[in-house]
Design brief:
- By secondary structure, the chain is an alpha+beta fold.
- The protein has a domain of 133 residues: Jelly Rolls, CATH 2.60.120.
- Helix content is 41%, strand content 33%.
- The strands form 3 sheets. Strands 3, 5, 6, 8, 9 and 11 form a 6-stranded antiparallel beta sheet that branches. The chain has a 5-stranded antiparallel beta sheet with strand order 4-1-13-7-10, with no helix packed on it.
- A hairpin with a 2-residue loop joins β8 and β9.
Length: 235
C-alpha cells in the first residue's frame, strides 16, 4: 500500500515539473518574438533608408551644381578682370603715345627786357628764357636744350636779331653735329635773320643753339630772337 502511494506522488511531481518547464519555454519564446521585428517592419525601415539616401544624393547633386555655378561665375569674373586690366593697359599706352605725339615749343631769348647776349671768348649755348609754349616739356628753359622724347621727324626754326658793327652768328646743333648757321653783319642799323630745318631724331637726341665766340645776338621786348620746334610725326 505504501509503495503505491509513493509511486503516485512521484508521477504527480514529474507532471507538475514538465508542465512548468513548458510554460517557461513559452514565456521565453514570446519574449524573443516580441524583441525581433517582423519582416514587414524591416521592409519599411529599408524603404525609409532608401528614400533618405535618395534625398541626400539629390541634395549633394544640387550642392555640387551650385558649387560648379559659383566656380563658373568666379572664372567669368576673373576673365572680365583680366580683360579690364588689358584694356586699361592699352588705354594708358594710347594716352602715352598721344602725349608723345604732342610735342611743340616756342621761346624767346629774353623774358621782358631789351639787351644783348655776347660777345664771349668761347662758343656759348643760348638759353631762351621766355617760354611761350612747351607741350610735352621737351625744352629745358634752364639749359636751353631740347630733348626728343620719341623717334620721329621734327622741324626747328630760329630767328635772330642783330645790331651794326658786331657779327651775329648762331648755329643749330644736333648733339655735337652742327646743322645750320645764321650769319649776319651790316655796317649800320638793326637786322633780323632766320633759318630752319627738319630733322630725324632718335629719342634722347639734343637740339640747341650756340652763339659763336666774338659774336653777339640781341633781343627786345618785341621778342625778335626766337627758337621754336615741334614734332611732325613719329617713326
Amino acid at each position: 500500500m505504501e509503495i503505491v502511494v509513493f509511486f503516485s506522488l512521484f508521477l504527480l511531481v514529474c507532471s507538475v515539473s514538465t508542465n512548468q518547464t513548458e510554460a517557461d519555454n513559452e514565456i521565453v519564446e514570446q519574449q524573443i518574438s516580441n524583441q525581433q521585428p517582423c519582416p514587414q517592419d524591416l521592409h519599411a525601415v529599408l524603404r525609409e533608408l532608401t528614400v533618405s539616401v535618395a534625398v541626400q544624393k539629390e541634395q549633394i547633386a544640387n550642392l555640387q551644381k551650385e558649387n560648379q555655378d559659383h566656380l563658373t561665375k568666379l572664372k567669368e569674373l576673373d576673365r572680365h578682370e583680366t580683360e579690364l586690366d588689358r584694356q586699361k593697359t592699352e588705354i594708358d599706352q594710347l594716352k602715352q603715345q598721344l602725349q608723345d605725339k604732342q610735342v611743340a615749343f616756342s621761346t624767346s631769348l629774353l623774358d621782358k627786357s631789351t639787351g644783348n647776349i655776347g660777345p664771349f671768348n668761347i662758343d656759348t649755348t643760348l638759353i631762351f628764357k621766355q617760354v611761350f609754349i612747351n607741350i610735352g616739356n621737351a625744352y629745358n628753359k634752364h639749359t636751353g636744350i631740347f630733348t626728343a622724347p620719341v623717334r620721329g621727324a621734327y622741324h626747328f626754326e630760329c630767328h635772330v636779331y642783330g645790331r651794326a658793327d658786331i657779327m651775329t652768328r648762331v648755329a643749330l646743333f644736333k648733339n655735337g653735329e652742327r646743322i645750320f648757321i645764321i650769319l649776319e653783319l651790316q655796317p649800320s642799323h638793326f637786322w633780323t635773320s632766320s633759318n630752319g630745318a627738319s630733322l630725324l631724331l632718335e629719342a634722347g637726341d639734343h637740339i640747341f643753339l650756340r652763339l659763336s665766340a666774338d659774336a653777339r645776338v640781341r633781343d627786345s621786348e618785341g621778342h625778335h630772337t626766337t627758337f621754336s620746334g615741334h614734332l611732325l610725326f613719329t617713326m
